[in-house]
Amino acid sequence: MHETACDTSAQLLDQVRAALDSGIHLDIRGGQSKTWLGRAVEGQVLDTRAHQGIVNYDPTELIITARAGTPLRVLEATLAEYGQCLPCEPPHHGPGATVGGMVAAGLSGPRRPWAGSVRDFVLGTRVINGHAQHLRFGAEVMKNVAGYDVSRLMAGSFGCLGLITEVSLKVLPKPRAVANLRLEVDLPGAMQRLAEWGRQPLPISAACHDGSALHLRLEGGEGSVHAARDRLGCETVEPGFWEGLKEHRLAFFADPRPLWRLSVPAIAAPLDLPGEQLVDWGGAQRWLKSDAEPQRIRHVVGQAGGHATCFSGGDSPFHPLPEGLLRYHRQLKTRLDPQGIFNPGRLYKEL
Fold it and tell me: Per the database record, which ranges form the FAD-binding PCMH-type domain (predicted)?
């Protein structure tokens, strides 16, 4: 799968300059596959989709560089031709997902606790900042004078710090062997087994409890995967569960109640909250469908040492920041986007 390469960075830079001159805000958009996550932005639309193409790809070096508007499906198909992949399994949440949006949202799939997050695989970026400068950051050229690793700061920034125009990513070979397993066990029993298995050299790359059964994925060399599968003694099932989980296509996600992502320590006890829960990432990520008040949900999750994000929108979808941390966010925003033109309020109304 290939696309028509097109470098529109000059036009994007002109639009940023014009916004600075006129004092207007910019609403950065790619494929709009994740516009539901975060607060609404009021501003002139800045569309990145025309700025696309694989700039450089060296399979032997395990590095790929692509423009921000490149469809994520195209990048993944290019990697697949050489037996490689993005280890963090970023979700698409729609056919229009782009590479820039993948980094800006910073969302990772089921393999994240074992392989790393989107941020961990960002090597470098090109960014248009709030001074209308088109800069390159990361290992390839320079370190930011402010002392920040700007490339990785872009992961999960939702466009609030600048306009990503290009990304260099570390990739890895696809696993040689995969086994998908299922074990009928309750949640406490599943958590106990995962704690035991975590101390053993087992090639686990995903673990999720759906309320009635524990789903496992084993990945690695054929010998290690087959040996672990035989050792664990679980039922072997088809692989579709993990794609459904990553893209929120499981029956659990069809529940009309608000969807919450709860990030807690993997060893945290079951959370006392009304609604249905699906436990992912070996316990570290818990999806909740509930009509409970946001304050209650965040209080319970905070008591467990975590934070909660509402994936169903609202005025405050992201967990409120402590005053000290909010101050650092403001300072960073001021440094990179002094006039506040990029996606104002998308993360927090104060930013």
Answer: 1-174
